[in-house]
Amino acid sequence: MAKKESQERVNEILAIVEKTYSDATIALECKNPFQLLVATILSAQCTDKRVNIVTKDLFKKYPTVQSVAEAVPSEFENDIRSTGFFRNKAKNIIATSNILVEKYGGKIPKTMEELTALPGIARKTANIILTFGFGIIDGIAVDTHVSRVSKRLGLTDSDNPEKIEQHLMAIIPKSEWGNFNSRIIRHGREVCFARKPACGICPLNKVCPSAGKIK
User: Fold this and answer.
1) Distances (CA, A) of 148 to 25, 62, 106, 108
2) What is the pTM of this model?
């Protein structure tokens, strides 16, 4: 494809997902940036549905950064046990909360550099916090859905999340980075499944080089 034609196809993809998933937003149920931080850490290797079930009670029990910082590790582990990898998640969440209290006065920093320096927060998590917690667009959060769908659409040829993010940022207008994440995740959950994607009903099948080829 010529560069101009490639960009035209990208624009068509963006237009289709905007029309199809215009109401798509983050699925994690949070009331503030700190809750989003905790929920996003918990969502690693866990469904958003399960995280929302766990955080419903968790945020009542630990309503502030300070209360999480002071949590008894074994008790906190038990509170989040059903999200999987609960020991490591509890360790990171409590450690991060202590840093937030001691270094930031209980507030959540608003830069990629500061966020990724916190325990348990990699670039994907930081992107989610910045985009959906503060409306700060600094990148595109690449989870398993974004990675899979982007590769199938031919928007990247990499399996590395950071490289995928760089590829996407180079071809998608910055104003659409947050929307792209939400819409592609929704598409991945509802149509472009990891196994047996529903290509026959996919709104993107006419612009997808993988349509009908994945069994």
Assistant:
1) 19, 35, 36, 30
2) 0.90
